[in-house]
User: Fold these one by one.
Assistant:
Number 1:
Amino acid sequence: METTLYYFTGTGNSLACARALARGLGDADLVPIASLRHHERIGVPTRRMGIVCPVYFYSLPLIVRECIPRLDLSGVKYTFLVVTMGGLPGLAIEHGAELFRKAGGELHAGFAVRMFANYIAAYNVRGERAIRAMERRMERRVAEIVRIVREGKRHLRRGGPFERLLGRAMFRWFGRKFVDEARTRDKRFTVDPSCVHCGTCAYVCPVENIQLVDGLPQWLGHCEQCYACIHFCPVAAIQVQGKPTRLRGRYHHPAVSADDIALQKAARPKAT
Ligand SMILES: Cc1cc2nc3c(=O)[nH]c(=O)nc-3n(C[C@H](O)[C@H](O)[C@H](O)COP(=O)(O)O)c2cc1C
Ligand code: SF4
Ligand code: SF4
């Protein structure tokens, strides 16, 4: 293998993007970050490596923030980060660059790919046409990223001055607090009587943060806020307290299944 692509995903956008990157780069191995969450050190077996994950709260998911400093980058020559997002990446790429420095390496390239926004605590999901537009946009963007990565270029996305200002302000005002509390924000999840006790929520959770008690989900306080449980529940029974999520749609990337999300936590023998 020439490239290792580490990914984290809740509703499949980042996995779809990682798969497209792997196709474009050729000879790339996809490794779920959730499968490495208990590894103290993560040996990177290739000279080129990338991370693909969503933006959460104008930054990176905690599981990704905690993964990067554990990477053994001694044999790595080129690193890149691709964040998928709804519209505003905020400080996600800057935070990625800081974490790579902490790991004793360097982030050579950082990209943002606008996809379908899945944060239904704040807004509704959009319709079918928007999904098709997202797929076309992603393919185009991935082709550009592949070209830059293949050439081994430095390319850290910074956004325009207004976007930078807004991203910084949003992280300071909201993001930081939400990131700090992310793990226990699952206490705001509730389940409706319409629950059919199917166990899908516990099955898909990439970090085993749900146990079923008398057929109903109970959240265990080490949540990543990925929203997989909310979006994959077949009867949309999981809500976010105080938010109109009952009135909102559910979404997952059309090419990504519940099995794909669930399998992220499967242990992989390769990592050290
Ligand atoms: C908890 C949470 C926070 C989010 N915060 C942001 C954000 O700050 N900026 C943004 O553009 N999108 C944000 N989003 C949207 C996701 O980044 C976007 O939908 C992403 O593509 C989802 O990736 P996934 O399908 O791989 O999980 C957020 C989503 C969630 C669930
Ligand atoms: S409990 Fe739900 S939101 Fe939290 S990590 Fe698991 S699937 Fe994601
Ligand atoms: S996925 Fe939905 S219906 Fe199934 S157990 Fe969880 S909350 Fe209940």
Number 2:
Amino acid sequence: MQVKIHRGATQIGGTCIELAYDGSRIALDFGLPLDGDAANEQLVPRIVGDDLRAVVISHPHLDHYGLLHHLPVDTPVAMGLAARRIVTAAAPFTRQALPNLKGLVLEHRKPIEIGPFRVTPYLVDHSAFDAYSLLIEAGDKRLFYSGDFRAHGRKSKLFEQMVANPPKNIDVLLMEGSSLSRLEENDVFPTEDQLEIALLEKFKVTPGLVMMHTSAQNIDRVVSLYRACKRSGRTLIIDLYAAAILEATGNENIPQSSWPGIALYVPESQRKLIRRNEWFDLLQRHSSHRVFPEHLRALGPKGVLLFRPLMMRDLDQADALEGAGFVYSQWQGYLERGSYTEMEVWLEKHEIPLTYIHTSGHASPGDLKRFAEALSPKALVPIHSFAPEKYAGLFSNVVYRNDGEWWNA
Ligand SMILES: [Zn+2]
């Protein structure tokens, strides 16, 4: 089996790996670089050809699938069923180009054949829902691609199962190392459970409405949020985008718009979107606990709003910010890069301090070590890290490969 990392040997984001064997090829992920423009054709890895059997998407994060719409529409795309539904549900709200997503379905520990490649997905703990590591077998070689994963989320059992009973005889492990540029060797991230406690404390001490700025697609985080709301007696207020994403998980254990303790609020900009696109069925489906602008002020002290910046005007108009609190629960890099300057100015104007309560979707260096030791590959190749140079000091059998170079597994 031959391997080429198109992008990812020295960076987080834009991941794409091409594999070739016996006249057939597949690609693992087709991601958008972190600062990349999804419309920029210069960024698209050149993989198109008659012998390309499929693109396999490890999980629904843009830095792993965000360039798919540039491929010919008949290119088969293998991914998880829920992942496919989430991408489809999100696209009309976020105005991302919706790629063709037809192809085989990834399911936990169910091998599929793609030409001469045998692909076995392993469900992992990550901040994206329906995320997989992938074992690829072709000829007599076994390559394991970690995808993005962690051990401190709500599905940490999956990590423990993996290290207790790992796939054997791995020739090549392509392992992500997102945390290596952020943490020292012995540092750890807080767990989702610890986050739930921190949120609960924040809800208790905030007299008014709590605004929680996080991605509705971070399903683990929404669950932590819902649990903290329940424990504090507050109602979780979501918008139609979040309601659609939660529904798309297809998982009856994930909070839904119809659950007790959840309310739907449709911001003005979404109301326009609904009218323009005639999403009346979607709105109807999620409206059993709908609240309106005139309710927001009274709900404040008993509510937590899953916040998005497009709601600022609604909150001003509803005069709902007396005693309000704000929790930022995303990567701090977005703030540092100035992605939310307007929101920060708005918070300052209302004298609402920003509280940072977040944990990473990626394994700490210690958990990466446990993972690498358990899989014990003949060669460990860095991917999805801004600090690949640290691998050699932390893990065994590290082999460095460059973007764009073909090599044998
Ligand atoms: Zn990810």
